[in-house]
# Entry
Amino acid sequence: MLGLMMNRPLLISQIIEYAAINFPEQEVVSRSTEGEIHRYRFVDLHARTCQLAHALEKLGVKKDDRIATVAWNNYRHLEIYYAVSGIGAICHTINPRLSADQFHFIVDHADDQYLFVDLTFVPILEKLQGQLKKVKGYIVMTDRAHMPETSLPNAHCYETLLEGEPERFDWPEFDENQASSLCYTSGTTGNPKGVLYSHRSTLLHALSVVAFPGVDFGEDSALLPVVPMFHVNAWGMPYFALFTGSKLVFPGPRLDGASLAALINDEGVTDTWGVPTVWLGLLRHMRESGERFTTLKHVQIGGSAAPKAMIREFQEDYGVEAIQGWGMTEMSPVGTVSRPTPSMQRRMSAEELLNVRGKQGRALLGVELKIVDADGKRLPRDGVARGELLVRGPAITSGYYENAAANAKAFDEEGWFRTGDVATIDADGYMEIVDRVKDVIKSGGEWISSIDLENEAVGHPEVAEAAVIGLPHSKWAERPLLVVVRNPDSTLDAKGMIDYLRGRVVDWWLPNDVVFVDELPHSATGKLQKVRLREDFRDFRFSDDRDNGST
Ligand code: AMP
# Structure
């Protein structure tokens, strides 16, 4: 028997209508690309989004058309999110840090019709546009006064397009499974793969994030997504900020520690989300300047493992709760969040609680997790057994966009998505990432977690960043090499580093060698690029294995 409930679709346009009706005076504050701080209210956001929807229709944009953005986090980008998806077209956010080849590949592969471009990125697009033959036109995200002379063909000025358009729009209704946005994974090998979100998955994901225990976004909250809107919809923040009535604060192009600290305190930010690299910069600035946070309550760390030293510093030095989240582009992206339960808070020591926060955490509603062995057999949830992590849920991809080759490998026989991460899950449901399948170090038949080693290494006060890779060893098959970026003025040497690690990790995990470098390679989304690092150290021989000629 089916339920007797109205079968109304979940649509992104409902969020902006809801926000304008219920929280008309709430603010959106942006550091604009032109430099100054811009602020307006949800009613203004709504009116301008409607104007943009009309303008898009005038440009001939239709349902299913892919409309790309190359932009920072700011109010115009937010208007594009809502207007494009709202009319049934697909908002394709592009990471501006991609290589020219990857950029060209994804614009072509997605068949983008128009590109919205922030001022900063106009020169990049001018260089590329000769190759982007199918693009019909470009919209520069600025006003008349700042509109540059540009060689981009069919270039429009954003503010001019909106002028005179009506401030109401009759949003069309369609199936909630209609595609709403598109984001390509920043794969370390091969071409990027497209993940196509739907209206339904976007709403379910955003709702499940705010339903997580302890999340209390509301009209008193001010949310700062440092995580870019060009990568997986800024983890859903542009959606749930609006329907929870939270103030939204956008950092624009200024992501350095000093600019972020100023924005956080000036705008009363309570919650901010971003990757560990960004928080390293913010914490360094706080340490050096002696500034304090006046309103910040929570910082969400995701995208890469959150070092325990970072979680501890936020909590102990600044009284800010650091919450780790794990996810993937393919998962909309949030899959798990790590917060100790109230009962853990009562019975555990500070150190034990830090260990819980160091895990990647419990699944959101609608996200199922399983770990399996090499034969695909389920492993127990005992916190010890480690295996590949697979996931399933309504906001998880059912297949990459137009990519049969990748899809053939991405799922198991039951349709679960293979994450490529190795993890444990404990009896309380807390998942902990041990490594990427490709990065785990197999030493004498046993596994060493490169993430755990990195986590411990960055706990050293003189270490800015660390990466561990497995390299061939004639006796052990593979052994860990630790590659370290020191803080300025540090005199830390290899012996000092190993002495520090001894006792913090089991002896057989200790890296065979430590190498110091000026910087580590990062992907377009700020992740360590281990593939490149392994490439850089291809000819490296461990000091205890110098006669080994093999690779
Ligand atoms: P992306 O799709 O580019 O966001 O990358 C997803 C991958 O980032 C995951 O499969 C993990 O390997 C890694 N990742 C994301 N969040 C975390 C986290 N909190 N801890 C460890 N790895 C993470």
